[in-house]
Design goal:
Elements (H helix, E strand, L loop, with lengths): L23 H15 L1 H7 L4 H21 L12 H21 L7 H11 L3 H13 L9 H23 L4 H22 L1 H6 L7 H6 L11 H25 L4 H23 L13 H11 L2
Helix pairs in contact: 1-2, 1-3, 1-5, 2-12, 2-13, 3-5, 3-6, 3-7, 4-5, 4-6, 6-7, 7-8, 8-11, 8-12, 11-12, 12-13
Length: about 300
Amino acid sequence: MRNPFQRTPPTPTTHLLPTGPVTLDESYTLCRDFNKRHGTTYYWSTKVLPKIKQHHVHALYAFARYADDIVDEIPSQGGRDVPTEVRAAALKDFGDRFFADLEVGRSEDPVLKAVVHTVRAFDIDKTAFRRFLSSMTMDLTIESYETWDDLLVYMDGSAAVIGEMMLPILEPTNYATALPHARDLGNAFQLTNFLRDIDEDLDRGRQYVPLEDSRRFGVDLSERRMSPEFIALMKFEINRCRELYQSSDVGIAMLPDRSAKCVQAANTLYSRILGKIEANEYDVFTSRASITTTEKAAMVAKMLR
């Protein structure tokens, strides 16, 4: 049974585009608004970065959020009943426009205008965006993943690649050495989301906990039932997630001060969600583990001292 007190998802970004042309500054403002509306932990963490870099992070977030909202345009998210083939075509069109605009160096799309500017400003590898869009395409038809390795294939494009996109903006002392730890942090964030959002993902017809793990612990997630077996499964996945966060700590040490503090803020805040799940006795079906705005603001203030 759905929790009647569960939060109402924010309006998808696909419904929030302005009409008419926008300036580059207006495009960046739109991207910031998307980040503030949908990714509050990331949004607050970016405040630790120098202002000259904050809008670039907002642009990367908006690209990912917009593509994700194209995929999730379904009734359970408050959207319309959009057939899979229509969403697939819309996602392909979004990707085709991005790569075409990136090639010429400018865009008139209200979201992509800022994204193209950011990608070219930092010479971000465009293949990272192809891998991201490939994983978004997987979400249109794939409902579950058999093994952890299978899930990692999906997460390579949906999560680890975000760390790759971010690194040029964060400017580590050694890109190649920092890269695997940035990928691990992207995966840690996503696995945290998967564990927090098991209930919501079931509504979307998806399960991101590997099926072999569920079988190992004797759990059928579709039953949405709290049991000793489910708690054991959650403990296993949370430990796996914390190992990824530990790897990311190594990479943070390779970043300049403000970049390190930004990533540390996001790392600390997001990893607290795991503690909230534990405090809720692992019940992700009737309550949603979240970090308060007060906690986020306090973390930013601490990092800016």
